[in-house]
Amino acid sequence: MSETRRLRSPGARGNRLMAFHDILLALVSYPDATPGPAIDRAVRVARRLGGEVTALGVQIRVEAPKNMLAEALLGLESLAAGERAKSAASLREALDRFSNDARAVGLTAFQEIQASHLYDEAHVVVGHARTRDMTIVPVGPAPASSQPIAEHLLFDSGRPVVVTPETGPLDAETGPYRTVAIAWDGSRPAARAVGDALPLLKQARDVRVLSVINEKPSVTAGCGHDLVRHLAAHGITATVDEVDDAGRDIAEAFQAYAADKGVEFLVMGGFARSRVREVILGGATAGVLAKPFIPTLMAH
C-alpha cells in the first residue's frame, strides 16, 4: 500500500534562500507512534532548513501465522487485524498533527503512507530517503524503532540524516540557523557531513569548528585549520575551538560545548568500527543517535 497526499499548506510560501529543497520526515506508527511533541519539534526544524517536506508514514502489516489450530484456539487473525487497525489509527493521528503543524508555521507539506512488515520499517524509509536532500528522524525514548531507523539511514541511504530531540523547548525561530558547530576529527565521515551541510553553513552567521582533543589520536591541535580554509573558499567564515575531553563521554563533551556557545545545530560524521553497527558504533555516534540534544546532521 502506498498513498501520497499532496497537501500544500494554506499560506505556505517559497523561500528563495532555503538551504534544502526536498526533505523527508520519517514517522512511525507501531508498536508506538512518533509522539506529537516530537512531530512539533521536527516540523520547526524543517521550517528553519527550508524547502518542501514530505512526511512518510510507515503503516505496519501485522500478519497472523498460518496455523489452523492456533487460529481456532486463539483467533490470531482477529488479533492481527486489531493491531493493523491500531497502526493505521496511530499513523493517521501523527499525520494530522504534522499537517496542522505545517500549516501553523507556513511550511509546504506533503504526506505519503507506505505499508511495511514489522521490523522492515527502516528499509522502507531508506528507499525513500535516497531521492531526498535529507531525512529528519525524531529520536528519543519512544518509539523504540526511531533510533534503528536513524542508524539505517545514516549508513545505508547515502544521504544525510537529521536527528531531532523528542523533548525540550519548542523552537520559536523560523529563519535559518544562526550558530552551527561542526564536530571535526579529520575523518571521511566528518568530511562527508561538511559537504552535505554546506547549504546550511552558508546561511549561518556563526560557524564553529569543534575539535575534541585527547579523545582519539587523529584529533590533534590545529587539525581544524585547513577546514577553515576550505570553508572560506565557499564564502563561509569559521572559528576553531579546541576543547579537552577531560575524561568525559564524547557526546557529553559536545553537549557541554553546545550549551556554552549557544549552538543551535550540530554537524558531524557517523562512525562504526565494523559492519556490526548495532554493537560497535563510535562513541559520539552512539551517544548522539541515542539522545540528540539539539538538531544534528549526521553523514557517513
Automatic annotation (TrEMBL):
InterPro entries: Universal_stress_UspA (IPR006015), UspA (IPR006016). Residues 177-299 form the UspA domain. Signal peptide: none annotated. It comes from the Bacteria. Belongs to the universal stress protein A family. This is Universal stress protein.
